[in-house]
Every structure is written in structure tokens, then in C-alpha cells.
Amino acid sequence: SRRLVLAEAVRVRFAPSPTGLPHIGNIRTALFNWLFARHHGGKFIVRVEDTDQDRLVPGAVDAVLDSLAWLHLDWDEGPRVGGPFAPYHQSQRLDTYQRMAEQLIEKGSAYRCYCTEDRLQRMREEQLRLKQSSGYDRRCRHLDQGERRVREAEGGPSVVRFAMPFSGITRVRDIIHGDVEWQNELLDDFILLKSDGFPTYHLAVVVDDHLMEISHVLRAEEWLPSTPRHLQIYQALGFGPPEFGHLPMILGPDRSKLSKRHGATALLEYSDEGFVPEAVRNFLLLLGWSLDDKTEIMGPEAAIERFSLERVSRSAAIFDHDKLTWMNGVYIRQLSVEELADRVLPFLERDLPADVLPVSRDYLLRIVPLIQQRTKLLSDAAHLTSYFFQAEVDYDPLSLVQKGMDRESTLAALEAAREDLAKMAQFEHHAMEESLRAVASGLGLSARQFFGTLRVAATGREATPPLFETMAVLGRERVLERVASAIELIRAV
Ligand code: GLU
After folding, report:
1. Residue pLDDT, tens place only, 367-420
2. pLDDT at 265
3. Which residues partner with 69 through β-bridges?
4. Is the CB of 16 under 6 A from ligand 1?
5. CA atoms of 81 and 487, how far apart (whole Å)
6. For the chain, which residues score pLDDT lower than 50?
7. What CA–CA distances, in Å, run from 51 to 26, 92, 162, 254?
8. Which residues pair with 14 in a beta bridge?
9. Residue 154 class from Cβ within 10 Å (0-12 exposed, 13-18 middle, 19+ buried)?
10. Catalytic residue, candidates 257, 260, 323, 376
11. 450 in Cβ contact with 391 (< 8 Å)
12. Residue 237 in contact with residue 104, Cβ under 8 Å?
């Protein structure tokens, strides 16, 4: 039947709480869910868990969705796209949670609690003083009908708490961690519904995963301790639970909790820093998953085909920023010249001095092949190419003078170069090299000396892409002007 097929189909969700900008860990969770769905031909759902109204951060939902879009992780249901189980914002589903909470009360699996914040505070202090285990002391669980009626009549605020069984064991068969068990007596009567009518995460997550027919819950390991609570709610509501898989933590190279210090920032900042989404996605793939112990570069098709939960590790993944940078270079080198030019252009517009803008795309298409090999970040581009755009280059005149040369021989070299470059039939790099090599030997200078002087004169830099190609792209006029200025500079020394 249709129902059976639906129940068997893979439906996974990414359930961000918009309490901050999404970071590497959040989006790694999204990626693994997406890969799992795509591998199995299932559905990938985004659900916004915005029930903690005090902690909402404006713009966070968009930042999550934009991060997914940047990495080309498309979702089948959720915000911006809708779907058969809409709405996908928990804040728009309050009556559903309230109805479920009522059901749990009727079944005797939940109860209203009228304890004031004051009383709970005193209770916690007392527990601390007596070194008792913390957690609600279940006072309201034991109210009789009469006492309850009185409390209801008083009309004060109340919450709904889950009535945890006093004994027994709750076991989760985690896909990644294997069997994990909890003693029910150590689990407290946690809150399901808050006094403002909003559900807690525990109630909302179970209700929605059930109603949205989620087959596998793949989420960060920090949620593993919540899982017995969730399983208890499933059981109390008479729902079959989904499969659970808790993804390993991500740590910094020093094995401490990942932070900015390790180069981990909000995901979209990687875009501003010049990382390409292909590299970030490949890097995230390897944070807790591997094909074998050597494969590192893997595009989306291969990743979808190969992804499996069996190869998700239990132990923490280590975030290595240098590896991400290396990987970025690999992906940049794989781009076509046109593609790289398009990606670099916004960075040039951002980082080059305003007076050299706009950048001509045709000119850029000739520059890009010269820098592609050495570009690690798109944001390197302005520094690597500025001398192609600036009218004048700025440098220390003494850097024109190469080892074993003096002012006179440098001047002679520049003058000979000027003459040769001016009369050269074609301003093309092969011809240029042949002709200039002859000039160098005529002057009794080594290629290193002569071309070193010329490089500084033409670019203002001591290290550039291959000199003749660089000069060919700069063009005869610009190179001659720069050699002329170099002659002035060295005369003035
Ligand atoms: N809203 C939770 C979070 O932001 C999701 C936990 C879950 O996937 O169950 O991490």
C-alpha cells in the first residue's frame, strides 16, 4: 500500500534552530542528511525549529537557507519551497503541539505543573546543598484531583511535564554508535509545553518527525542524551520511532571544542574569505565520513554515490583549516578560465583600488591563466593581479639592482630592454624571450639578473607569473612606460 511505501521511503530533515548564524558543524549535519537522501532517492526536508522565542536571531533563517543554497544543497520541502507537510516553521504549528500535549495528559503520560520559578529555584538550591541529583522533584505529579482543580481555578501559569517511568531502561539502537542505554530513574520529568504555550524542543521534534514521516534522524552527537526522552515520548504517543544516527563531534586540531580560534567561522564568511563552495562541501564531507584512508577530492556525484552511514566515524572529526585552504586551491585549479574569471571578478571589484575599476572581463580572461596555479583563495586575486590594473607601480628603486649588478649596469640593462621591446615586431612571449635573451648575453648579464631587473620594472614585484607572458598581457605600451619610469628612478638614485 501507499502508506507502507511512504513509511519505508527515506525522508530526512535538517532542523536548524535560528539562534545564531550557521557554522561548519550545523552545515555538516545538513550535508550528511542531503547526501543520505540523494543516495537513496529520498527526500531532504528543512524544518525551522524556532520555538525558543527568546533566542531567535534576526536573519538566522535566511543565513541557514543561503548557506545551503551556496553549497548547492537543495531541499525538497521546507521554507521557500513549501511541501505537503507545511508549515515548516515550528512557531506556526503551536496548536499541533498543544493537542499532542493534551493527548499525553489524557493518557497519563504527562501532567500540568504549577510550580513557580521561585519554588524551582529554592528546590535547586536545596538539591545542591544536600548533594542530591538535580531535576524536577515531581511535586505536581503527585497532586490529587482536588488540588489540581484548585490550581486550575487560581489561573496561574503552568507548564506540561512528561511523566517519566520510575524504572526500566530506554535503549536506542544508534546507527553510528550502536546500542546506548539509559536508566529511566535517572531521567527527569522534563517540560513538554512551556507556560507561553510554546513546546520545548523535545516535544516539537518528536511530533514533527512523526507527522513529517521522517525515516532517519541524523543529527549532531550533542543530541544523543536527548534521545531517550524522545523515545519515551514516541512510546507514550503510540508512534513508531525513526532510526537515529548521531554524527561525530568536530574538534579543533588541539582537540578542544571548535571555535573561531581554529579558523572556523559562520559558514557564509568562507564565501567572503574566498573559498569556493565545491571545496567547502568536499571538506565538510570528510568531517566524520571517509571513503577509505586516502581519497580526499570527491565531487558531488561521487559523494552521493559513495555516501553511506557505515563509514561515518564514531570518534570526533578534526577541523584543519590548512587542509581546507589546500583543497580550495585544488578546486580553483579545476575551474575553467571563464569560470574562475567570473568568480574572481567580485573580489577584484571589492579589493582593487576604486580608480582601476571597472575591470574589463576580456583583459581579466588573459590574466587569469597566469594566476590560476597560485591562487589558493579567490580573495588572493587582487593582490596577485593589482599590477595588471594599476597605472603606475610602486616599489623601492634599489630592488631593480640585482645581485652582482650596480647602478650603471642596471641602467644599461633597462635602456637595452626598452630599445628591444620597442622595436620587437610582435609583442608576444616566445619572440620576446628569444630576443631579450640575446640582449642579456650581449650585455654580459645572466638571465636571472637581466630578467630580474625587467620584472621589477614591469610589475613592481620580485615574484610574478612567468615574465614574458606577464609582459605580453600587460601590453607594449604599459611595459614601455614602466621601463621608462624605472630608468628615471634609477637615474635619480
Ligand atoms: N534544532 C536542533 C538544532 O538546532 C536540531 C536537533 C535535531 O536535529 O533533532 O541543532
Report:
1. 999 999 999 999 999 999 999 999 999 999 999 999 999 999 999 999 999 999
2. 84
3. none
4. yes
5. 64
6. 1-7
7. 18, 9, 18, 35
8. 46
9. exposed
10. 260
11. no
12. yes
Task: Yes or no: say if 49 and 55 are a contact pair by the CB < 8 Å rule.
Answer: no
Question: C-alpha distances in angstroms, 71 versus 1, 43, 284?
Answer: 36, 17, 10
Run of H or E including 162: strand 159-162
Q: Residue 362: helix, strand or coil by DSSP?
A: helix
Q: Is the CB of 20 under 6 A from ligand 1?
A: no
How far apart CA 151 and CA 115 sit, in angstroms, is 10
One-character DSSP codes across 234-262: HHHHTPPP-EEEEEPPEE-TTSSBP-GGG
Q: All 3 cell numbers of residue 156? A: 496561574
Q: How far is the CA of 397 from the centre of ligand 1 (A)?
A: 60
Residue type for 464, please?
Answer: T
Looking up cell 586516502 gives 294
Distance CA 132, CA 145 (A): 29
Q: Per DSSP, what are the bridge partners of residue 11?
A: 43
Give percent of the chain with pLDDT exceeding 90.
95
Nearest to 159 by CA among 193, 201, 134, 118: 193
Q: Is residue 73 helix, strand or coil?
A: coil
* Cβ of 17 less than 6 Å from ligand 1: yes
Classify residue 357 as exposed, middle or buried by CB count within 10 Å of its CB (0-12, 13-18, 19+): exposed
Q: Is the CB of 226 under 6 A from ligand 1?
A: no
Determine if ligand 1 sits within 6 Å of the CB of residue 242: no
Q: What is the pLDDT of residue 1?
A: 36
Instruction: Give the integer Cα–Cα distance in Å for 363 and 3.
Output: 60
Q: What is the pTM of this model?
A: 0.93
Q: Identify the pLDDT of residue 4.
A: 43
Is residue 274 within 8 A of residue 332, CB to CB? The reply is no
From the CB of residue 244, how many other CB atoms can be counted at a distance below 10 Å? 21
Total number of residues shown for the chain: 493
Q: For this structure, is 131 an active site residue?
A: no
The number of the ligand 1 atom at minimal distance from the alpha carbon of 13 is 8
**Tens of pLDDT, residues 152-198:** 999 999 999 999 999 999 999 999 999 999 999 999 999 999 999 99
CB atoms within 10 A of CB 201: 19
User: What is the greatest pairwise CA distance in the chain?
Assistant: 111
Q: What is the CA 318 to chain-centroid distance, rounded?
A: 15
* β-sheet bridge partners, residue 216: 12, 243
Taking the centre of ligand 1 as the mean of its atom positions, its distance from the CA of residue 23, in whole angstroms, is: 13
Dist. CA 437–CA 419, nearest whole Å: 14
